[in-house]
Amino acid sequence: MSEIAEKVKAIIIDKLGVEESEVTPEASFTNDLGADSLDTVELIMEFEKEFNVSIPDDQAENIATVGQAISYLEEHAK
Amino acid sequence: MELKRVVVTGLGALTPIGSTVSEYWNGLSNGVSGAAPITRFDASKFKTQFACEVKGYVPENYFDRKEARKMDLFTQFAMIVADEAVQDANLVEGSFNPDRVGVIWGSGIGGLRTFQEECVNFANGDGTPRFNPFFIPKMIADISAGQISIKYGFRGPNFVTVSACASATNAIIDSFNYIRLGMADVIVTGGSEAAVTEAGIGGFNALKALSERNDSPETASRPFDKDRDGFVLGEGAGALIVEEYEHAKARGAKIYAEIIGGGMSADAYHITAPHPEGLGALNVMKNVLRDANIRPEEVDYINVHGTSTPLGDISEAKAIETVFGDHAYNLNISSTKSMTGHLLGAAGAIEAIASILAMQNSLVPPTINHFTDDESFNPRLNFTFNKAQEREVRVALSNTFGFGGHNTSVLFRQFKD
Lengths: 78, 417
What we know:
The complex is a heterodimer.
Chain A: H1 3-16, H2 37-51, H3 57-60, H4 66-76
Chain B: E1 6-14, H1 21-29, E2 36-37, E3 50-51, H2 65-69, H3 73-88, E4 101-106, H4 112-124, H5 135-139, H6 143-152, E5 158-161, H7 167-180, E6 186-193, H8 198-206, E7 236-244, H9 245-250, E8 257-266, H10 279-292, E9 301-303, H11 310-324, E10 332-334, H12 337-340, H13 347-361, E11 363-364, E12 389-390, E13 395-402, E14 406-413
Parallel strand pairs in B: 4-5, 4-6, 9-10, 9-13
Antiparallel strand pairs in B: 1-7, 1-8, 2-3, 6-7, 8-14, 11-12, 13-14
Domain Carrier (chain A): 2-77
Pathway (chain A): Lipid metabolism; fatty acid biosynthesis
Family (chain A): Belongs to the acyl carrier protein (ACP) family.
């Protein structure tokens, strides 16, 4: 697993208080990991801070699963 | 319309001298001080380096980590005491209509630590706004009432009163009023505060409101003592389940006390200083006696606001002598802030509980840390110095006054069918 993927998973485990085994690439933040709309906003902000990127709102809307977050950040992280 | 009778059927407390109601009463009756060096932050550069913190508090003992992270400490405290009170009142599902159960909470400041952290983060950044989405809903004072309602599904009247150190008493009075008017059956009331932060201590220090007796924290809160030099900041919470009498009777609830009156007034004088003649304090005690329709002679105990500030203690004592006349010298008076410190917006909640427990136990908790008489006070006034005094308490009065000149009083009476 890439370094980015490891960091993304660690952030999700910390912010959503879930077990590592639940954080699969297909897992949806809201449907599977118990996030509400505010949790999702907070996750995006943590990704921005950790990876020093700015994720525009229209793109943030497309990041709904663990895998989508990892691939977006692998592409955009500086 | 005929007003309904209002009783107290449950209590919860998380204080600097005890983390449950029974521990709190142990501390009160034994004259324990909750003051100690500050642990919540490095206070070495502050004029005041001690406070009355809740001891050994670990959020994970009460909440899962994710839940705790979304609540400021003042809301965590609120949830803990509300739970103790709900259990104590045996408010089990099916014994009430959730649409008729309200939550009216008090907090003077709200989520001060959250506010401070978010602003510091922003200031330390490059100007890009990266405010946490939970910043506002963690910080706003009313979230405490909202969170309690969400946990239990209580869908009646729901809000938070803000009147600085009078906040929780305003919440109790509002609850009393809504229930006696028939607008709710049960209300979870009380207050919580968690302002032992850099901003809290620094802000009150700047006002010269806090004791600076760093060499002896446990004797710093000394209301009515000649050498008092300000209040000691406290933190914590208290909850009361306030209920319409027939509703309580129908579900077989135990009854701690009856609420018989609420009084409110304003000094209309100064933002932080009390009226020198205690005008607001005098009016609020007259108002509460009138509301309850009792004579001053019926009151046995006054749990005073008595914060240990040079001016405030004098004006309150003057007001008591004016309102109660010769009976002022038969009363037991005490400031439990000598033990708990000043819980700001939660003070009225834990002091209402102290007043009710004094009734239950026929024991008046003391004003500890009395060393030297102050000639400003009439020696005939009994401030219950240093040691609890046995006394049958049929009626107890609890005073709280807040910055802004807000004054509140509430009267409790032993319950008789």
